[in-house]
Amino acid sequence: MDQNDSSLRIAIQKGGRLSEKTLLLLENIGLEFDSYKNRILVRCRNYDVELLLIRDDDIPEYVQDGICELGFVGHNVTAESKADVTSLRGLGFGKCRLSIAVPKTSGITSLKDLDGSRIATSYPVLTREHFERQDIHVKTIEISGAVEIAPTLNVADAISDIVSTGGTLKTNGLVELETILESQAELIQTNRPIPQHKKDLIHKFLMRMGARQQAEKSRYIMMNAPSDSVKHLCDILPSLKSPTVLPLAENDMVAIHSVIPTHQFWEVMEELKNAGATGIVILPIENMIV
Ligand code: PRP
Ligand code: ZN
Q1: What is the CATH topology of the domain spanning 96-183?
Q2: Rounded to the nearest whole angstrom, what is the distance from the C-alpha of residue 169 to the centroid of ligand 1?
Q3: What is the pLDDT of residue 204?
């Protein structure tokens, strides 16, 4: 496929829901690429890696066969493919679910009501499994796009499709009956043997991703405070380590620096202010290795 067989090869989705966030993630860990436009294979300028931009449905198989060592893809796609790959980690974006939905006006309220009916889906494997597990007999009709229109066209009685915001279901007068699978973007790795130098590249790659993910979960906080309130303020701070306390030129005043979890940021800030802290500054952290 390519002369340079020694580069680590990563499959990502070409022009889809996950592409933008995946590329941002790669950029955020310091990887620089030339233009992606109309390219299938894109080389990285400063890391021994190249990206293969393909249809998301093809990613699990490319990784399974070792054409790419790694792949960024929705867990829904991996699960449906039954590809022999290892999921290394969830990425926290691209959250969605595979759900069974029926027309609001159908009167169907439980999965059992669907016995003997037709289900339109782009996920026939997962859908069949789900019904079989509950011993309900249905006919799956495989459609590759615009599944939500199938009941209106009387091609199917219900659908099994990806739901993210729920907007598509609503627009088409459908309601969710049951979730088959929860999903998010994940990083998958081939189970084929990987040469040592590529293993080293993957190790470094994962380290960087980990540091970035950790950094995004945290914020750096700085504030000034009267010396006698330090103990109280430090009790409020949900820090990873003991906060840094620095003397200020002004008598009886100190600066406190610490790292706090991003999700607690508003709550903590208000408490600190009430406890006497002033000049509170909160900064994003670019990378963090703990
Ligand atoms: C999925 C799914 C729905 C839509 C649901 O398609 O097939 O059409 O997203 O999202 P919502 O709940 O936010 O309205 P997607 O855009 O992933 O395209 P694809 O099925 O062609 O991959
Ligand atoms: Zn797709």
Answers
A1: D-Maltodextrin-Binding Protein; domain 2 (3.40.190)
A2: 10
A3: 95
